[in-house]
Design goal:
21% strand, alpha+beta, six-stranded antiparallel sheet
Length: 693
Amino acid sequence: MSTSSSALSVTRGRPVPLGATVLDRGTQFALFSRHATAVSLLLFEDAATAEPTAEISLDRTHHRTGDIWHVLARGVGPGWCYLYRVDGPFAPRHGHRFDAQRLLFDPYAKAFTGAMPARRRAAELPSEQPRCVVVDTAFNWRDDRHPRHPLHRSVVYEVHARGFTAHPSAGRTQPGTFLGLCERIPHLRSLGVTAVELLPVHESDEYAPGGAADPDAAPLVNYWGYNPIGLFAPKRRYSAATEPGGQVTEFKQMVRELHAAGIEIILDMVFNHSPEGDAAGPTLSYRGLDNSIYYLLDPGDRSRYLDFTGCRNTLNCNHPVVRRMIIDCLHYWVVEMHVDGFRFDLASVLGRDRSGNLSANTPILEQIGEDPVLRDTKIIAEAWDAAGAYQVGKFPGDRWAELNDRFRNDVRRFWRGDGTAAALATRLAGSADLYQGNGRRPAHSINFITCHDGFTLHDLVSYAAKHNHANGEGNRDGSDHNLSANHGVEGPTDDAAIGAVRLRQSKNLLATLFLSLGTPLLLGGDELARTQRGNNNAYCHDNELSWFDWTPTAAGNELSRFCRALTALRATHPALHRDAFYPDPSPGDDGVRWYAAGGGAPDWEQEQSCLAACLSNPAGDLYLILNAATRDRPFAVPAAPHGGAWRRTIDTALPPPDDISPLETGLLITPQESYDADARSLVLLAASPDLGR
């Protein structure tokens, strides 16, 4: 050991737990590497120290147990920083890429000093490299409790932790931070959301390959955060704290405040790839620690990486060592950070075995679903990957919910005018075609119209094509399959008629989302009519293109009011959050009956643009009318199955406040008379034995 600190000494330490653990007598460090021949721990007394305070060479005899290298450093405590230097064979054809010149991050680090530099040298220097931080995990949680909303009573709000309050219009005292998000909790509560789903908040490499900016210009950043280098570590840039590791405390403060407001927190986790890329990419952690263990490699040529993610590498998620890291990571966020659930990015990668083959019985999927610590958490799969594995409706067991892109596509098609009533009915009824056969329930379908990846709701009804030129890739990136429409003019317009159609279509899409069986996910900002100016892949813009603009607008005010009324309606009416599929065939009570506009049964083979449904429930019946046609249509109105008078609750063609009314105050509609539904409108009638008396 070489050191300039006389107070620092080392002893053998223990092989568990992995990472840096603060003890009464110092800090223990433990790191996995099976094939390393030498490991050194570089310690920095504080974040500002340019050169290591000490470099400790771990002895293979005294500081290694099995595949774990470990040491107890006395005199080292919270606020100290560290990196590793690991040596071993450089034999790419055997999967080994050790390089003792590289300084490496600890995969179990709980905090980092900052982000990677935009410009990198061939070998990182201690003065340039961000560092892992030794963190004191003590925190006063007070009486913090997990809200534990049932999935079928949940409304999820997807948002970027920084972009939520980074814009000057947010008027926050700590803009773009976890504390800044706390200051917007009243807005979240007013919307009636039960869970905030944050885009990745773990430490990430913002300058990993992506956004092809001019190499001589300021590089674009990976703003969304899907390039993790520290899966256990909240991102330093999202914190107002100035002390090393302060972001951990600030994240906990945010969780505590959200829980106090009855709001859960769900994290978007990226276990499928790293920013190290292929052989030409940077060596930051996994590659330099044990490349052959952490990555899926081509069995025929282990110098080549298997890529099922579109990011030039794939983590070996079903290797026991990587599985342990994933479970340890999830446990940490739940037990130490009090997180309520997870959304798994490109989760089909978790279903690939150690040869890269897709399997329904891979250990990690079952382990996550059956893990006793995670039993009360929400687990949501993005049930596909970038190599063609599409598994919506196929994730195993009764614990996995899934993002349902079939819902998104079928609803978009219907309201654009080129879908079918049959497809829409299937999605309204909870997507039984996907979830009923394997024992799951409607709530396992995470329904969404828009999410971070694609158009915002405003842009979905304002642009017929993507406009991604600002990404620097010649408008080649981003999906061309948007199922969008501009309704007469591409992009912004002063034409009041076009603006009215766009607003009505936005309401139609939102109402369909919240009136369908399943768990609704609302893209943050859609309630404000947020625009990305037609960019459907704004992953590389940490600027006003992506940030929330809180400046009040007429459309934003109207959509916010409409959203608040929708979530309130969904929360109070049992028919809208039922936890079971409808009986087939419907017996009339507690079921659904479908109608054509004229009152008879729909012709499922022919009908495209019109549909009606009577949702029968002892607590109150609902009659839903959907007219996606470009002309007005009269719809027959049946008698309410449980009696009582119908009252108009929603009509998206009407001006506010008549477009959505409380259940007990809407306009009375006489049973058996027809209701004239305007072109491109959604109508909801509500009845109970007490209404109208």
